User: What shape does this take?
Amino acid sequence: MAAIDFNVVIPARYASTRLPGKPLRLMAGRPMLQHVCERARESRAGQVIIATDDQRIADAANDFNVTACMTSEKHTSGTERLAEVVEQMGWSDDTLVVNLQGDEPAMPAAFINQVATDLAARPQASITTLACPLGSTENEINPDIVKVVLDRAGYALYFSRAPIPWHRDDPGPAPAFGNSPPVLHHIGLYAYRARFLRQFVTLEQSPLEHFEKLEQLRALWHGMKIHVGITQQMPASGVDTEADLQRVEKLL
Assistant: This one.
């Protein structure tokens, strides 16, 4: 397979209501953000950039030799922050950009490569992302776990915090669905072209995005296509709380 040229941008904010200073909290003796950067460097990315609005994070990035872009404090999402990086770096419209969240220190490098390769192979896709089968009924009803339903070609029909698809005649655990489509757990890793990022920040927000608090619904609302690659492995979940920090630190 020919090598795919892409860059990774890691949006990282110091402010966090549940875990203040999250990107710089220590895990296995190093800042969590450094572990995230290491996952990105283990991929085939050409450049790894940290996008932040806090000088403390920029200083830390310098300590572990990663380029940091200072971005506006007014951004309301990581995607908006990535769009500013695209402009600062002067990347062409066709540049492939992977959005790796700053609280995902256990994201496999293979997944980063996968979303970039998937996007390069699908010029009709505006976004590529990942999902894996979700077999637990408890997880199906957990609003913190985002589910996705696909069409026959693997493109997203809808993302929701609700359990979808819903089997009307047998609303039991996922294994009871038999040969019907499995419930898919969305993995929050994305690849875009720089052209899309420039366009996305100009789009009107959708009501669905407000209801679900899922930014990718804005793209679907405006008729854009999101391809979803399927994996059989679920990466360790990101870090939002002190308990998450301790759990993922043990994995690292």
Summary: The chain has one domain: 7-251. The longest strand covers residues 184-193. Residues 174-179 have pLDDT under 50 and may be disordered. The radius of gyration is 18 Å.
